[in-house]
């Protein structure tokens, strides 16, 4: 069986989640390739060695450039801060590696486009970590839509709200700076809901009318809390959308939405039914069918189970639950199988670039106070 | 005690609800005036007589012009189809009557403005039937916001979606024609959520970017079902809002939103908390406070009770429920008390006109594909 | 049309609710008789006169004995404290009046039996105010069961928990004394859930194994708060049940169940489905059908609407809500129609007596620590 | 670092879950010992080899006796069918191995007692797989109770209902036979809720009054579906409980409860608050505090997060979810840490035996129709 040897860069928040999923994936799924946790890069050799030990990687390095150049690596997994994604991905591609990058793909659409081109020219496979679409409940939603169970989609409403920056006393961090994060809530959270919209509606977003605000304009300097530093990007944004299919949509994103801990959600209305979902109850999906008997119509709460995509590999009993890292495990199954079998991966860098275009279009629309065609963004 | 003698025009859907509330109000509340169900008008004398008998009115007439001119009437209650509101209200005002009209106030902002002017010049009181804001749960929401319990409002999201026209086989009716209804979902349902936005946010909507669609373009002719007639107004609409206070908002309305039976709802985010509500669970309000203890944060489900506005008059035990017509009963208490005590009524015709302006601004924005300042609409 | 002239005794909590429903009923329903609010009795002539004025009754009296003897009264409605039910009902029956009594019917099964006998001998109609079973959602539940939509019932779980006595500082009142209330939580709340069990399961309770406790043994004397008085009956109780049909059941009741404001609820499991309900969301019913398609099974939330029993008279749109007093309005419709049409009323005194037997059986079982056959209670 | 070398017997449903958790645990947690997936036993050498390969175990065997005798095994993990638990555990103990067994510990209380004695005499550590109590939400519930946040517990209500045998056409399997399963729903599901009651209430169950039924008396022979075989144990059971502390409790369990996919749940009422939970929403807990401000009382939905026990190791953001196998991962952390550090494990075999006593007491009580003291069961 072909080996798929992974080099992981970065072991912070999401890097650890990747590591948990790497450990779990080969037991959960009958993978098409032999997944090898080959090498791990961190900012110092010591930290790298310690993390390799605890996360189960064979080797480690304090220099990510060494990792991307290592001949025993097949795929480079980028979990480093956003502003490094581009440089790392291009370097990995230059060495002929497949690349698996966390979202957002890059700080700008232009950068993303460069990455797409490089990957295409090199013929390597790419995958972006939009893990929420790998959740069985959301895969089920897609399946229900694709099978026509709610008729033709007529409206999409999506949110990705969280409250991690809701407290004005929370110090400024990289999320709030243009040079390290690019966009604010749009880039960090909105990216997920745009990808979700593409996936679920099955059509690309064609044009947008957006608006956005920075609510907390200054935050304490983390090194000297009595000093306030300016927040450089938006705390909240929302937009009207039109998909290429003509479907109307609406999205909303915020990092200061008090009360939302994992407020990704969607309501998708069709001509014959409706789907409603919130990631805070990630193992259930609400489904309404307008052709149910009179007096017996209503939203039905479906608990995910073995009849639904990718659930049975974790547990064969319905309603027993599904966890955050389990989504990453599905994503990694896709990664390994795609590389081993030579089949396409999705969401790939191109999708990452498309998402970036929509986000930039929303920001531009908010600035210009007018509708923007996504294809105008380059 | 001063009498408040009501003349009711129209006893269809909402007219019957008014009648139920008129019967209930004097027992529920210690009214400041003596409510008298004096006269009722319907399209024929026979129907009027029958309805007066069953709804408890003293007299009846087949001619609404007789009713508005009757000297024993203090307030004219207009529950006739929308396209008649203006004519009836102006006639009632001409006779010096106070006017209580169902929403939408008129078919156009221009008509609404005329009604506002006439009422102002005549010095009569006016009230528009935006009954949902009279519900204790929503009054509580307003109270929570006004007291600063969720900090400063930073975002408003509101919907009023229903599915009464979701079935394409449902014949065309007056809702779908411009001459009888004016706008579609916006006028019939959206009006409520705009009024709600004004009430809850405590600031007027200043500008909008809207979009709308007619999904079911043709419907059966009710008199000859094999023939299809064109639907003349929108099935669904949504918009971005900016309030005068600078707050960002978003609304959505549809009459074909499969699954929504009474899908009026709102999520109001503040700097210190959040409120979430759906009219389908009209006796509960969800409240989140960001300053709750770490690990003990979460949305709390408040069941309305005697501590909340206007609940105790119906029942002195919390959580025992509140009904649709009970909202109208509160509205009628406001009407009778305002007239008897000579105090202001709200939402009055001016608010009806303001709501109309916002709706027209959304429609115009959808057409022009640009933001519209509400004050441009006249 | 035949008149049904009501004499109401007592205008406290529930008496006011009756009055609201009397006002509403003739407008909501096309009653079979002409409902007349004829006379009202309170503890003093002054209070009676004031209440008659505000509640819309023609005449009043400070002596309930005068009311029950009045020739212009057809039905006596007893909303006085529990310990007076028997005396008033027997007096009313002696004058040949129909009797509509609030629950619990009497302080003991023996007293209830006497009332049943008296009514039967006099040939008068009786009705007990178990209003929760008149709610459209619960009528729908009964309909679903009776039609076999969930197969054969195999388990009943019911609660009626509230927290009105949860605070130990709440002074002792009549609820806590044997001479005024009889049983504690069982009599005040448990009565409803026993009636509900009979109604929904469609079979009588045959035997019980019960347990109960007084958690707050002493409470402040309302006249001298520093003095503590003993609580004489149970704060909470629960029981296993066997119905005559063999079905297993379980009930629970408490007046100190922190968090439950109107915690009447039930889960009824059948061989092909399940129904779940809580009165705190009194306008919705959850329904599960095991024969739904694989992967599309789940509890469906039905919002009550015009297709369901007794909803359309209040509002013709689904999901628009239903209130506490609306249940009483349905009950009063039953009362008036039954008397006017000479048809049977239910739940009648016999059902009140049956409920009392079950409650006494639970209390006896708790004392003896053994199963008790309900028919042993007399 | 000390090694903890595991020998896993059985890789069916729950064995696979263990394997997933073994893979995940060392990455998720900083374990106190080095977890080694040493050996795996299945019914044939071929199957064992295949499973060892896919589940990441070093060695395999077709003979579990070989595994329990292997000198390189520190702890034997028994995931074989229930009727084998005793024999395997005694053999493992005889070889001085620690034992980690799935529930129920044994087919009878007598057998469980024998296992407890053997383990105690051998001085080995034991753990029973009551994984639901390892869930952060339930650990949080325990913490809330232990800290007195809901006052003194006054009532426990618990269920573990599922519907895996609800269809009468489902063939008879080992669950339905006394020789392979012992009790029915009580043994398979009820065991969890009894353990949960002990854990959460913090007091042991002292006496019970139970009832039970076999609803589907015959099922198809799996080898010859046209032939029906008798079901030998109960489909559903419920019981009243008294804890040693005097607290009243109630439990319910069923394997034919249509609609319940993972219907483990509890409502725990205290003198100052209430906790409500269902495993179908395993990442949230509802909490009510009676001392909240008037008009601001209500059940609060807490989403598990990093402030709560054992969540942060999986993800550092609140509300991001928690999965079924994650509970097992916490359990395995307890196992490895306990063995490596020489500290006590819980729930141990003694707790397994205590649970068994309660279950047998319920069954005996149902038969004798009387209350049974748990200590009478041996």
UniProtKB/TrEMBL annotation, chains A, B, C, D:
Query: What protein am I looking at?
Result: Myo-inositol 2-dehydrogenase
The record, for Pfam families, names: GFO_IDH_MocA (PF01408), GFO_IDH_MocA_C3 (PF22725)
InterPro entries according to UniProt = Gfo/Idh/MocA-like_OxRdtase_N (IPR000683), Gfo/Idh/MocA_oxidrdct_glycsds (IPR050463), GFO_IDH_MocA-like_dom (IPR055170), NAD(P)-bd_dom_sf (IPR036291)
Native source species: Zobellella denitrificans
Would the keyword Oxidoreductase be found if you checked this record's keyword annotation?
Answer: yes
Task: Tell me the ranges covered by the Gfo/Idh/MocA-like oxidoreductase N-terminal domain, including all copies.
Answer: 4-130
Statement: the UniProt record of this protein carries the keyword Aminoacyl-tRNA synthetase: no
Where is the GFO/IDH/MocA-like oxidoreductase domain positioned along the sequence? Answer: 139-275
What keywords were assigned to this record?
A: Oxidoreductase
| GO molecular-function terms, A-Z | nucleotide binding; oxidoreductase activity
